[in-house]
């Protein structure tokens, strides 16, 4: 399934932090002008119920229209690809995969779809800034997946880190580095061919 991290955003604010609405529009504009993007990421996911944090690393690739790819290299290899209405999660070490040929990408929150230049942060979230100049997003409509999002923006409006708290208190933080905008990613980057003997798994109950 899509990592909860897809719902998270933190932006490195300029020295004099702009007003929340101005900052949100700066972020939105950056991704509306972005055709594709590639970046390395570090994810820290804190499980509220267990009081522990898992650290993961890998690469994110994004391309319009509707293409996302997360390649995890630590703590174990895993690839998650969204290509239109097809979602694939592949774990090579276990040789197992989950495939959804009818994935409803429109169900993704604006916290994810703005990466593809879609959705509207100002329409879907109440906006504020915190003491560190980060953009604070609170869903206008209650959503168990997202209680609060923190955004931190580089000078051009790019996302450099993300932090999402869900309704259960879990916190998913992601930082991005070596962000490469409009590198000209090929479409076949988002086509994941699975081994013929891969074990197909069903989604979690209720998923």
Question: What can be said about the biggest beta sheet?
Answer: 12 strands, mixed
Q: Under the CATH scheme, which architecture of the domain at 4-58 and 106-186 would be assigned?
A: Clam
Shape: globular
Mean pLDDT: 85
Q: What low-confidence regions span 5 or more consecutive residues with pLDDT below 50?
A: 4-16
What percent strand?
35-45%
CATH topology (level 3) name of the domain at 4-58 and 106-186:
outer membrane lipoprotein receptor (LolB), chain A
Radius of gyration: 17 Å
Order of helices and strands: HEEEEEEHHEEEEEE
Strands of the largest sheet, in order across it?
7-8-9-10-11-1-2-3-4-5-6-12
Structural class: mainly beta
Distance between the termini: 8 Å
CATH class call of the domain at 4-58 and 106-186 = Mainly Beta
How much helix is in the residues?
Answer: 10-25%
**DSSP summary: helix tally:** 3
Q: How many strand units? A: 12
The CATH superfamily title of the domain at 4-58 and 106-186:
Lipoprotein localisation LolA/LolB/LppX
